[in-house]
Amino acid sequence: MTTKARHFLTLADFSRADLRRYLKRAVRLKASTRAGRRNTCLAGKILGLVFEKPSLRTRVTFEVGMRQLGGDSIYLSAQEVQLGVRESVGDVAHNLERWLDGIVVRTFRHEVAEELARCSSIPVINGLTDLVHPCQVLSDMLTVLEKRGRLEGIRIGYVGDGNNLANSWLLGAALMGMELTIACPKGYEPDRAILRTAKEKAKETGAKITVTHTPKKAAKNADVLYTDVWTSMGKEKEGARRRVAFKGFQVNSALVAAAGKDVLVMHCLPAHRGEEITDEVLDGPHSIVFDQAENRLHAQKVLLEALLGGQKGKRSTRGRP
Ligand code: CP
Ligand code: NVA
Questions:
Q1: Given a cut of 60, is residue 61 above it in pLDDT?
Q2: Residue 53: left if φ>0, alpha if ψ -120 to 50, beta else—which one?
């Protein structure tokens, strides 16, 4: 599979048709991986992971995904790279493009990921910025599709912080014609520009996008109750203030009961047990959080195939003799 989008920085980089194609492919690739069939379409390719924040799922799934596809990966922590600190973001890109076939970047400011992509002749995939987490929501859409057989019209009730996850859900739900209700405390709403873009897109796709400050409104009739940490990586100093502001926004048994008996509970993980979600719910019968975690692998393998698969060797010719 190939794609016109060379980079994947937000879900808005893809069309609805692209996403449908990727999700369909992910279902097939997951089945063939589980059946033990080998697909080595990325033999000889090397992916670099430039991570300035910690990671379990994103790191392991990209590294395992590359190996399963016949390629390899190299992990670079903030210790080694320090985008824009030890050297400029552009210089990092012009080095990495000489050795690697693709980059996954996890950083703070989204603009840094954008600059890395702008300067790089090899594909750049966003492995999380403060603004969005597109790989997570792409994988989550695969999980919802598997569990409910469709995305169109599926009702997602997102309860918690209007953070990178909420922003990516706005773009994903708008593209795929879903009904998304985000319930967050006042002052913790999702990104305004992304909300505007999502509402515009929703007019074309039939999606319904609502932001409320009442968790029960998000839970009511929800097919999926989704939550994420109240304090994202990099915001630790705000932890105490956030625990006060988010009181009442916990996904607990009472909220699950308000949603209905067939509701699926999703969380991108890591969870702060006892804050945004109780043990009872996270470990309970509605929870599908580890299916979500597994699907990071399958969905991202499709991304890797699409973005890195079409290339013949390293692409940069900048300054080459
Ligand atoms: N959900 C997620 O991205 O997990 P990590 O931060 O562990 O990669
Ligand atoms: N919103 C969380 C997601 C972690 C995967 C964070 O940015 O820390």
A1: yes
A2: beta
